[in-house]
Amino acid sequence: MIEQKSQSQELLERRKNIVANGVGVFNTATVKEAKGAIITDVDGRELIDFAGGIGVVNAGHCPEPVVEAIREQAGKYLHTSFNVVTYEPYIKLCEELAEILPHGEKTKAMLISTGAEAVENAIKIARQATKRPAVICFTEAYHGRTLMAMSLTSKVNYKFSSGPFAPEVYRIPFPNFYKYSGTQEMEDFVDTELNRLRESAHSMVDINSVAAIIIEPIQGEGGFNPVPQRYLEGLRSFCDENGVLLIMDEIQSGFCRTGHWASWQHYKVQPDISTYAKSLGSGLPIAAVLGRAEIMDAAGPGTIGGTYIGSPVCCAAALATIQYMKDINLNERAVQIGEIVTDRMRKLQKENSGIGDVRGIGAMIGIEFVKDNDPGKPNTELCAKIVKGCAEDGLILLSAGTFKNVIRILSPLVITDEQLNKGLDILVNQIKKNT
């Protein structure tokens, strides 16, 4: 008897037949419709979503106010190009972003379509503002897959056979306390890392040629690694002392994920320029660069942006998303979700040596799997088994980290406690089953 294929299997086979192999397959789930924190696949099976479209649907799948705003704007006009015909949704969104994410006394903004575009434009602005060419970035960083963004990205599998890369990019170690502290206490570790930063100005690149340092305050693809508070404060001081602009990439950590509009607000360390995308538009392609007005205005006319900068439909979606996040207080909900996830995972960690670390801020939580409780022995195989087992049990998960040994929690923040705990039950069961 020939076993009949499911609709999901058929769809995945069609994908394999027609879509270029280089397009990533991080999970084998399919979708027919999605609402809130639940994805229904093409076979009608309901899946709990802990991936959130890679951190894009903090406000949930298809929030009604956002869907309605999209419909309304689509009936008016779809595209004029903001370069050619000015429209109000673009300006209103920039005003809203400047209000919730202020940079100094006066903030200015620009809109584009993707996170990688935001990074590319942030670097161009920094170079024009400082008249300097070099950029410093960090190990384990991820900033996108266009040329400059890929050059800044650390993870080599995103860069395989894609060089040569952009010049004048220099990389220093990210202060990953769990992985690299050894026997040092946090205070001593941060002192060591700040000394390393200062030494780089003499041993790696002339600091007077450095336009900017770009950092994710909480690394995303790198493994949900939060920067130590005092390191970020020291980095801010180092930039000020040397005329270097500090760029913070908040593309995955922004819009309520950490319990703030941006994670730099948690640290109370303000960037000169910052980048946003993902959950800004609830799934529509929109991104933003914000910065101090005098820095943003340093870019010459026509040197930043593009044809599709700030699509009016995407602007409408973003404005509705921000208002919806305010109305239901998703920043507060992120803190609650983070407490539930962290509490359950840390209890399990105490009885399971396979869990090396549980870390994060707000609802941006990572669980790192290692062998023999050793940070130097990433357990990639275990992490892969857990992700696969969870998928079979109805939970969509993503891994992260240089060695793909970190499970990241990116559930929509509208998830109910019942859905959250049901998902965590599946995750806990798979961890216990495989360790």
Structure description:
By secondary structure, the protein is of the alpha/beta class. It folds into 2 domains: 7-62 and 329-434, Aspartate Aminotransferase, domain 1 (Alpha-Beta Complex), CATH 3.90.1150; 67-327, 3-Layer(aba) Sandwich (Aspartate Aminotransferase, domain 2). It contains 15 helices and 16 strands. The protein has a 7-stranded mixed sheet, with helices on both faces. Strands 11, 12, 13, 15 and 16 form a 5-stranded antiparallel sheet that branches. It has a 4-stranded mixed sheet with strand order 1-2-3-14. α3 packs antiparallel against α12, α4 (88-100) packs parallel to α12 and α14 (380-392) packs across α15. The radius of gyration is 22 Å and the shape is globular. The model has no long low-confidence stretch (mean pLDDT 96). GO terms for molecular function: 4-aminobutyrate:2-oxoglutarate transaminase activity. Its cofactor is pyridoxal 5'-phosphate. This is 4-aminobutyrate--2-oxoglutarate transaminase.
